[in-house]
Design brief:
Alpha-Beta Plaits, six-stranded mixed sheet, about 40% helix
Length: about 150
């Protein structure tokens, strides 16, 4: 009886399980994307934006909404990409608990689920949000790779 009690009290937290699943998915994604070139395009903005905004690269992709509170706007900040929807859902739920209006879109051409931290009308807003997100998680190397998606 005592052994059964110890078994239940020694279980890892759900956050630890999430982290293991996330790391495994990230490793699988990296392995499948090694040979695939990354498409990056700089988008010209109006002269009212700052030079830093103009130089921030964006990736143009055609995506469809899987899960989102509100509508998808032109620019979005992507903080995770997964080939398995359940992994995207896990990260999205984590971000919601952190206070973000996170969502998920799918790029059917690449069969990838993109987890969004937010979606914006302008590139300048997206750059500002991406920088703030990265600053909020300085020790999360996966979040430091956040990028801007331009929905075509």
């Amino acid at each position: 009886m005592m052994g059964a009690a110890l078994m239940f009290t020694s279980c890892k937290s759900s956050q630890s399980a999430y982290k293991q699943a996330y790391e495994k998915a990230k490793a699988q994604e990296t392995a499948t994307q090694v040979n695939a070139p990354v498409e990056q395009t700089t988008v010209a903005e109006a002269t009212t934006t700052t030079a830093a905004t103009d130089n921030t690269p964006v990736r143009q992709e055609t995506v469809s909404v899987v899960r989102m509170d509100g509508s998808l706007k032109a620019y979005s900040v992507v903080c995770g990409s997964f080939s398995v929807q359940a992994n995207a859902e896990g990260l999205c739920q984590y971000l919601v608990t952190e206070g973000y209006k996170a969502g998920i879109v799918k790029n059917f051409d690449k069969n990838m689920y993109r987890v969004l931290v937010g979606t914006f009308d302008t590139k300048a807003e997206a750059v500002k949000a991406k920088d703030a997100f990265k600053a909020a998680y300085p020790s999360r190397s996966d979040f430091q790779e956040a990028w801007i998606l331009l929905n075509r």
